[in-house]
Amino acid sequence: MEILTTRYGHIMKRILESCDYEAVQSLRKSSFNLRGFIDSFPPDPHVRSIHLQMEISTEIYMVVNFLNPEVPPLDIRYGAERGKTVVVKNAILKTRKEKVFENENFVDMFCKDFSILQRFLSHQKAPMDEVSFKIFREDHAGTFAKIGNMLSKGKPLPTRKIALKVYRVEEIMAIFPYLAPGVLKDIYFEQARMGITRNSHQLNLTDLAKLKQWKKADTVQIKEFTVRYPSRFLHFSRVETCFRTISMKDIESLKKAFLKDDTPKFFEISAEAPEEHMYFEHVMRKMGGDWTEERNRDQLRRFRQVTPVQGNNDKVATFLLFYSSLKLERNCLSEEEFDKKMYGDFLRWDRLL
């Protein structure tokens, strides 16, 4: 180790900088001296994104993509089969490698590999594009807690986007505080429970909304959860979510925020109403002004009102969509432009793996 750090250290550093992440890990396993040197001077792993999927109780699937398109993704499946732990590398490629471990726990093996990856990420210069964790069974709630415990011991995870599919806010809070504030721009939360209505589970944002990560982000999309207090979302430029209840006072405050501040660009929220006709009539009467009835791309009935913003050339369009959806948009984009701009990144959520 002493020889490496003195006589050949600068040469070894240059060699490591030219290696991809898997090659570096292979070198770590080749000798005690190399492991000590690499752990003392870890190279930039150049990670573009990390995706974890926990679809069944006996399996964790991790995919790591790299900034260099010529470097193949690292995909590893950790699973329990017949009392043993099976680790499969490159499961989606032809270079599949499988190892069986007799006395190891698959979650512990995943945590060991993830902690090594985290250690290297603390030396990454460029932020990652995305980190996504998808959980489909409550059995893995404890896995989120273990990941959070590992993240709490290192530098904040530098990612521009976070996508979490979870059961409850506790799983979000296990991860969210350990993301790099200011770097994080896009937030995506989704309810993992299947076969329920979106109104059946409320996401309590009280603690989350106090964090710098929340306050400094630009966009948020929350699916299949309901939330409260629209005021917690006014610093975002784009919002899509469902409120358990929303009053005319809330709607008016949102409209006021759009007209006063140029930060909000797009809000689409749900507003509960018993009947479409009563809802449209009530909101339009309360808000006043002229409304135009039209059909959207899916031929669904909606009403539009356009309000000029004093002091500049901006205009705020208010849409009342079918039944209970309200949309506010600055300098209204066409639906095609909006879909591309708002959902282009998030649509990859179902195609991550």
Q: Can you give me a brief rundown of this structure?
A:
The protein is an alpha/beta fold and 353 residues long. It is 30% helix and 26% strand.
How would you describe the overall organization of this protein?
The chain is of the alpha/beta class and 353 residues long. The protein has helices at residues 2-6, 9-17, 21-28, 32-40, 106-121, 141-152, 169-175, 212-216, 248-260, 276-287, 335-343, and strands at residues 47-54, 59-66, 74-81, 84-89, 97-101, 130-135, 161-166, 186-191, 219-223, 238-242, 266-270, 292-295, 301-308, 315-320, 325-330. A 15-stranded mixed beta sheet has the order 5-4-3-2-1-6-7-8-9-10-11-15-14-13-12, covered by helices on one side. Helix 5 runs parallel beside helix 6 (141-152) and helix 6 packs parallel to helix 7. It comes from Caenorhabditis nigoni. This is DUF38 domain-containing protein.
Measured by DSSP, the beta-strand proportion falls in 25-35%
Summarize model confidence as the mean pLDDT.
81
Main CATH class of the domain at 233-353: Alpha Beta
The secondary-structure class comes to: alpha/beta
**Helix fraction bin:** 25-40%
Distance between the termini: 40 Å
* CATH architecture classification of the domain at 233-353: 2-Layer Sandwich
**Biggest beta-sheet profile:** 15 strands, mixed
Poorly predicted runs of 5 or more residues = 273-278, 345-353
Shape: elongated
What name is given to the CATH topology of the domain at 233-353? Double Stranded RNA Binding Domain
Q: What's the order of the H and E elements?
A: HHHHEEEEEHEHEHEHEEHEHEEEEH
Number of helices: 11
